[in-house]
Write a structure and sequence with these properties.
The chain is α+β, with helices and mostly antiparallel strands. It folds into four domains: 65 residues, 2-Layer Sandwich (Uridine Diphospho-n-acetylenolpyruvylglucosamine Reductase, domain 2), CATH 3.30.43; 112 residues, Uridine Diphospho-n-acetylenolpyruvylglucosamine Reductase, domain 3 (2-Layer Sandwich), CATH 3.30.465.10; 31 residues, no CATH class; 95 residues, UDP-N-acetylenolpyruvoylglucosamine reductase, C-terminal domain (Uridine Diphospho-n-acetylenolpyruvylglucosamine Reductase, domain 1). The protein is built from nine helices and 19 strands. It has a five-stranded antiparallel beta sheet, with no helix packed on it. Helix 5 crosses helix 6. It starts with a strand and ends with a strand.
Length: 339
């Protein structure tokens, strides 16, 4: 276990911001994790996965960055129809989803090609194309930083909601060690209700799409929507899609007929943030090295030398304009690191 000092995080955050950490360490074993927390007591600490959903506001982090690379997938219990998996937090999320499909375990296929690690996925309650991870989590094994002991939190105790959880609300309290998933061993019906997936299926004239068809479609949609962070800095969707009352959406639609919304139950509508940002005139705008992506303005781009504060400032202006002009409040999906 090597502790590095004044370490550049440029390659460890997908925005490509050149932030320096006072200390940096990679953890591959659970006992090293406990050891590091017992050793570095009185300095701030930040847990890092792949850095795909994080924005540093300053160019120096005064504490310890802990990059978790504890890996492993274990089959805990298996029946004819279901399987329970224990997956350690350092596993690459996209590779894990591919592994489940190759092994005949189903449920996570709509979450394919999402960047990041397994350990980060419950924090955001990641979701995509009509699927949320919370529906497949049995429990989460964590290290309680305050109590200094390993705990297991049930799905209910994780307090999952739209792109939120107890972990996101307590970034400095819980460190996720592993996640227990419960998946099906067969599938009768794929989740293909999302409009972009439907369009692609119709375009390809697939009357009976298979799970492999679905995976290829999701991959093509994601590659079209989200720029490769290796080529241009970004964190995917910077904002969440706001959820509003159905009556409010009806009134909004009268004044702005092109705004798109998707019902999530009888009383709630999820609005497309892309539409909202376009309506207030931010789509395609570029200030310095920060661009509001022309194709999908929910994504903010770093063209090379933007600081975290510059990206944050643009996001704040967008939030204020959408609130003032449309009466809708946008929330950031990325985790903002203030220290």
């Amino acid at each position: 276990m090597l502790i590095k000092k004044n370490f550049s995080l440029k390659k460890f955050n997908t925005f490509g911001i050149n932030v320096y950490a006072r200390y940096f360490v990679i953890i591959k074993q659970i006992h090293n994790l406990i050891e590091i927390f017992n050793k570095y007591i009185n300095i701030p600490k930040l847990i890092l996965g792949n850095g795909s959903n994080i924005l540093f506001l300053k160019n120096y982090y005064p504490g310890l960055i802990i990059k978790i690379e504890i890996e492993g997938i274990e089959i805990i219990h298996e029946t004819k129809n279901k399987v329970i998996l224990k997956v350690f937090s350092g596993e690459n999320w996209s590779k894990f989803v591919k592994w489940t499909i190759n092994n005949g375990f189903y449920g996570l296929e709509n979450l394919s090609f999402i960047p990041g690690t397994v350990g980060v996925s419950p924090i955001q309650n990641i979701g995509s194309y009509g699927t949320e991870i919370k529906d497949f989590i049995l429990k989460v094994q964590v290290y309680d930083i305050i109590k200094k002991k390993i705990l297991e939190l049930t799905q209910k105790e994780c307090k999952f909601s739209y792109r939120n959880s107890i972990f996101k609300k307590n970034l400095n309290k819980y460190l996720i060690i592993s996640v227990f998933f419960i998946l099906k061993k067969n599938y009768r019906k794929l989740n293909i209700n999302y409009i972009d997936i439907k369009k692609k299926i119709n375009f390809l004239n697939l009357k009976y799409p298979t799970i492999n068809d679905l995976i290829k479609i999701i991959e093509s949609i994601r590659k079209k929507k989200i720029p490769d962070p290796k080529k241009i800095g970004n964190a995917g969707s910077f904002f969440t899609n706001p959820i509003v009352e159905k009556n409010f959406f009806r009134k909004l639609k009268l004044n702005y007929p092109n705004i798109v919304g998707h019902p999530i139950n009888n009383n709630k509508i999820k609005i497309s943030t892309n539409c909202l940002i376009e309506y207030v005139g931010w789509k395609g705008r570029k200030i310095g090295d920060v661009e509001v992506y022309e194709k999908y303005p929910i994504i903010l781009l770093n063209h090379g030398n933007a600081s975290g504060m510059e990206i944050y400032s643009i996001s704040e202006q967008i939030i204020q304009d959408v609130k003032k002009k449309l009466g809708v409040f946008l929330s950031r999906e990325v985790d903002i690191i203030i220290d």
